[in-house]
């Protein structure tokens, strides 16, 4: 899995891990903060959330255009600095007056701009590493690993947010509204780590930064020349994929909106027994370690390697056994903590998905990237189907709020299961989609086309507010049904366009 990859991949992945950890720490509590601090309704917080996410994912389009002219490396560095300033403003506890509101708006604008310069261009640099024929066959696997690294940062983010807020309230005496700013401050520190990693290991990827003044022109891979017809065919194919991506992210990013509302309003506030172990991030880390150790047992070429992997696996199992033996009473379940399950599943399942597709590739049966995206949309529909089943018989959100002691709460397992299914969909769509863009994009338009991927993501994120608009007096089954229908229709569209997409893949 890790063998034969260029060193630059791991450096860029680690730099992104640091940045994503901060971003998802902030995002885990963002809508709850807006409701608590400014008294926003679910719909109002949803509008704010969707506009912010749209900005975060639209700006890479501008960042890509600038990078095509000035170089990817310069834009990445500038982006980190701007993001840092945004998170710094966000971390200031200024209360709930107009000054605080407009400071937050300004902070979010800076974060959006900085992300636009950083995110897409970093991924273009990853793709550029695989323009070298020596690494070309490992492009899809590389983006799976890169995506896994992103989610390592996201895995710890919800716990970091909850723990730092608890510390601020219980030890330092801050109220709930002000404690959110401490979670935002974590992002500042994470960006310092990210930029440090970037420059310490810069030598391993400097040749793909694409700066206009190149110290060594020979280090650059030759640019593929395309005819106008070929360029048009590739751009059209990418735009078709972008159209589908809109609806995936519209559905998927309900994790920070309606799924978080569901966790906050309908899910049991405590957990006991083995289930409670899932809400301790270190238990999830132990499971991840065991998964990778298990794969290493079979993949290692030496007896020593197999023995070390086996010992690590047993150590992880022993840790989980010790944790289980020390269970006592119930564990509080905070709504933001559910957002750790998606990155946990991504990290744990990445080697599984890579092994499956490697096996299919060896047999000449691996689906194309567009076909994987179509399958991902169908699986996303199944994920919301799980939520629909779990929501049967429940009150509407408005009725739940008015019910008081008569309110009905469901097992956390419904959300945990939903995140599992949605993660399968994400692994088929997101890393494969990014890989498809990096492979198919005309060489002179790489930055712009990667930006186009994020524009589609931005539009999808803007449309996430659809969920919050129906969060009130509408039955929950109907809310989830909206996303089921959209995901199924998107999959059908992909299959209709499949021949055209696979022609350029």
Explain what the structure shows.
The chain is an all-alpha fold. It has two domains: 7-204 and 228-269 and 333-504, Up-down Bundle (Growth Hormone, Chain: A), CATH 1.20.1250; 271-331. It has helices at 7-38, 42-70, 72-90, 98-129, 139-170, 176-200, 228-252, 258-265, 273-276, 281-299, 303-325, 341-362, 369-391, 397-403, 413-440, 446-462, 465-469, 476-496, 498-504; strands at 270-271, 331-332. It is globular, with a radius of gyration of 23 Å.
Main features:
505 residues, mainly alpha, Growth Hormone, Chain: A
Q: How do the strands and helices of this protein lay out in sequence?
A:
Elements: H1 7-38, H2 42-70, H3 72-90, H4 98-129, H5 139-170, H6 176-200, H7 228-252, H8 258-265, E1 270-271, H9 273-276, H10 281-299, H11 303-325, E2 331-332, H12 341-362, H13 369-391, H14 397-403, H15 413-440, H16 446-462, H17 465-469, H18 476-496, H19 498-504
Antiparallel strand pairs: 1-2
**Relative helix content:** over 70%
* Measured distance between first and last alpha carbons: 23 Å
The share of residues in extended strands comes to under 5%
CATH homologous superfamily descriptor of the largest domain:
MFS general substrate transporter like domains
How is the main sheet built?
Answer: 2 strands, antiparallel
Radius of gyration: 23 Å
Secondary-structure element pattern, one letter each? HHHHHHHHEHHHEHHHHHHHH
Number of helices: 19
Structural class: mainly alpha
Strand order in the sheet with the most strands: 1-2
Would you identify the regions where 5 or more consecutive residues have pLDDT less than 50? 212-221
Shape: globular
Fold-level CATH name of the largest domain: Growth Hormone, Chain: A
């Amino acid at each position: 899995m890790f063998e034969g990859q260029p060193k630059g991949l791991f450096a860029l992945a680690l730099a992104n891990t640091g940045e994503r950890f901060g971003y998802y720490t902030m995002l885990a509590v963002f809508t709850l903060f807006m409701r608590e601090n400014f008294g926003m309704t679910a719909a109002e917080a949803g509008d704010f959330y969707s506009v912010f996410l749209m900005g975060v994912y639209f700006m890479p389009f501008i960042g890509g255009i600038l990078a095509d002219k000035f170089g990817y490396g310069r834009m990445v560095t500038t982006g980190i600095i701007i993001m840092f300033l945004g998170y710094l403003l966000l971390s200031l506890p200024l209360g709930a007056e107009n000054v605080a509101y407009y400071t937050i708006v300004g902070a979010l604008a800076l974060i959006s701009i900085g992300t636009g310069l950083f995110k897409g261009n970093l991924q273009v640099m990853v793709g550029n590493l695989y323009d070298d024929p020596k690494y070309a066959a490992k492009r899809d696997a590389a983006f799976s690993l890169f995506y896994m690294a992103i989610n390592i940062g996201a895995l710890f983010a919800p716990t970091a947010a909850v723990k730092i807020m608890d510390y601020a309230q219980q030890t330092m005496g801050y109220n709930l509204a002000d404690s959110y700013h401490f979670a935002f401050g974590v992002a500042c520190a994470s960006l310092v780590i990210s930029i440090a990693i970037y420059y310490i290991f810069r030598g391993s990827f400097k040749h793909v930064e694409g700066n206009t003044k190149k110290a060594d022109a020979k280090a650059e891979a030759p640019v593929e020349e395309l005819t106008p017809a070929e360029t048009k065919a590739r751009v059209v194919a990418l735009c078709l994929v972008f159209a589908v991506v809109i609806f995936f992210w519209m559905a998927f990013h309900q994790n920070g909106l309606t799924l978080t509302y569901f966790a906050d309003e309908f899910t049991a506030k405590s957990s006991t027994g083995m289930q409670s172990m899932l809400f301790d991030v270190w238990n999830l880390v132990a499971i991840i370690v065991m998964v990778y150790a298990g794969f290493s047992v079979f993949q290692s070429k030496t007896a020593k390697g197999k023995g070390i992997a086996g010992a690590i696996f047993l150590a992880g199992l022993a840790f989980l056994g010790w944790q289980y033996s020390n269970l006592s009473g119930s564990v509080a379940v905070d709504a933001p903590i559910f957002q750790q399950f998606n990155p946990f599943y991504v990290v744990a399942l990445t080697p599984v998905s890579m092994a499956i597709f490697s096996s299919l590739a060896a047999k000449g049966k691996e689906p194309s990237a567009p076909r994987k995206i179509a399958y991902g949309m169908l699986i996303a529909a199944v994920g919301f189907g799980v939520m629909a089943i779990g929501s049967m018989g429940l009150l509407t959100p408005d009725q739940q709020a008015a019910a008081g002691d008569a309110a009905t709460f469901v097992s956390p397992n419904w959300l945990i299961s939903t995140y599992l299914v949605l993660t399968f969909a994400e692994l088929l769509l997101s890393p494969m989609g990014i890989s498809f863009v990096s492979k198919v994009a005309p060489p002179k338009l790489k930055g712009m086309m990667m930006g186009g991927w994020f524009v589609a993501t931005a539009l999808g994120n803007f449309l996430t507010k659809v969920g919050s608009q129906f969060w009130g007096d509408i039955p929950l089954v109907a809310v989830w049904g909206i996303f089921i229908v959209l995901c199924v229709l998107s999959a059908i569209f992909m299959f209709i366009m499949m021949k055209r997409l696979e022609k350029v893949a």
